[in-house]
Amino acid sequence: MLKRLDVNGNPFLGVLCSASDALAVVSPDVDGEGRAGLSEALGVPVVVAVVGGSRVVGSLCTLNSRGILLSELASREEMEGLRKAAPGTDVLRLPGKLNAVGNNILVNDRAALVHPDMPKSSVKRISDFLGVEVLRGTIAGMKTVGSAAVVNSRGLLCHPRATAAERKALGELFGVPVTVGTANYGVPMIGACVVANSRGAAAGTPSTGIEMGRIEEALGFL
31, 110, 138, 156: which sits with the fewest CB atoms below 10 Å from its CB? Predict the structure, then answer.
């Protein structure tokens, strides 16, 4: 299912939310109606969290069906709160200076592309914890790959200036078709605008019909 949503007038859903095929983690700024809309669109339970005291949880966490990866900024109390809200879900805090893990990691259940400066030790932690192949790289020359694209098990939609070489590498890594596009009326930072899994997606309310059609096609919902 596809939906247009915003959070108190903020259409950058990927900054405030993160999702997998098992779960969605959202900011406390997302009200009950928004949580219901996201749960309906994504077909998964929604849990509310803060990370490091911050509400931009989409920037500070990422997840796939195997677990939730959190910024080094996350407290033990926040980690325990997530474990209680999502019983049986593994939670790991990733150490290091690149602590905006949602911005710096693009992941599905098969693979992850990470910031090119991600330390080797962090690459191994990500691979072991999320159970995926991990490569360093860029999208449209940008290091914040999680902000520049969204991926599920069916497809990948990324920044329109991604090079042919980057698109080829993405397709080989994730094993899905790669499409370029925008959301929120021309914003190229797809990962900041869209939250998605293999069941559905939500984009900011300014997204045009053409953009929503591109999201639907790129992520395999047609």
Answer: 31
Mapping DSSP to helix (H, G, I), strand (E, B) and coil, where does residue 75 land? coil
Residue 71, H or E segment:
strand 67-71
CA distance 71 to 92: 9
Counting the structural domains of the chain, the total is 1
Whether residue 3 lies inside any domain: the answer is: no
Q: Does a structural domain hold residue 86?
A: yes
For residue 197, the domain's CATH number is 3.75.10.10
Angle 25-31-36 from CA coordinates, rounded to 5°: 70
Q: Residue 55: inside a domain, yes or no?
A: yes
In a domain, 4, yes or no: no
H helices of the chain, where? 13-16, 32-42, 57-60, 76-85, 101-104, 120-130, 145-148, 164-174, 190-193, 209-218
Lookup result for tokens 């593994």: 90
pTM beyond 0.90, yes or no: yes
